[in-house]
């Protein structure tokens, strides 16, 4: 990735907003949440694990106040395990493929629902680029 940090990852995710949710999907026919992350990272030349839980385990942890576009944000929704992931885009926003019947869309970490279910964030890309800082909701 040519020195843009995770910006190209976030840009790739933004280009597929509106693509339908498809369980197990990781291409333009449809995405599940972790498939969207795999797709965006592959376009940046990075291979990451397939499931949200494996992505969270493999990523370098990132403090909430150091999030940068391209970082992954992980959630626990009606589960004891990490079962949802989104791609951070800046200013508290992230792109994800939320649920069956939905489509790739933006969410906000400041929103009560996502704020409540947020667990952690992680990074796979090289972090030498300057970060966009977002104040912590906690």
Can you count the helices? 4
Number of domains: 1
Question: Could you name the CATH homologous superfamily?
Answer: endopeptidase domain like (from Nostoc punctiforme)
Order of helices and strands: HEEHHEEEEEHE
Q: Mind describing the biggest β-sheet?
A: 6 strands, antiparallel
Q: Structural class of the helix and strand makeup?
A: alpha+beta
Quaternary organization? single chain
CATH topology: endopeptidase fold (from Nostoc punctiforme)
How far apart the termini lie comes to: 32 Å
Indicate the overall shape: globular
Secondary-structure arrangement, i.e. CATH architecture: Alpha-Beta Complex
Evaluate the radius of gyration.
Answer: 13 Å
Which strand order does the major sheet show? 3-8-4-5-6-7
**Strand-residue proportion:** 15-25%
The CATH class label is Alpha Beta
Low-confidence stretches: 128-138
Mean of residue pLDDT values: 90
Can you count the beta strands?
8
Helix content: 10-25%
Question: How do you describe this structure in short?
Answer:
The chain is built from 4 helices and 8 strands.
What does it look like?
There is one protein chain. The protein has a single domain, classed as Alpha-Beta Complex (endopeptidase fold (from Nostoc punctiforme)), CATH 3.90.1720.10. The protein has four helices and eight strands. By secondary structure, it is of the alpha+beta class. α1 packs across α2. 37% of the residues are buried. The termini are far apart. β6 and β7 form a beta hairpin. Helix content is 24%, strand content 22%.
């Amino acid at each position: 990735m040519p020195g843009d940090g995770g910006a190209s990852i976030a840009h790739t995710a933004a280009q597929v907003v509106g693509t339908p949710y498809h369980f197990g999907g990781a291409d333009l026919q449809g995405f599940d949440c972790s498939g969207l992350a795999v797709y965006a990272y592959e376009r940046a030349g990075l291979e990451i694990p397939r499931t949200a839980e494996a992505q969270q385990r493999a990523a370098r942890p990132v403090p909430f106040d150091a999030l940068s576009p391209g970082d992954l944000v992980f959630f626990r929704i009606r589960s004891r395990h990490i079962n949802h992931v989104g791609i951070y885009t800046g200013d508290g926003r992230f792109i994800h493929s939320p649920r069956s019947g939905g489509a790739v869309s933006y969410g906000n970490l400041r929103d009560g629902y996502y704020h409540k279910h947020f667990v952690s964030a992680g990074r796979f890309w090289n972090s030498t680029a300057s970060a966009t800082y977002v104040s912590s909701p906690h």
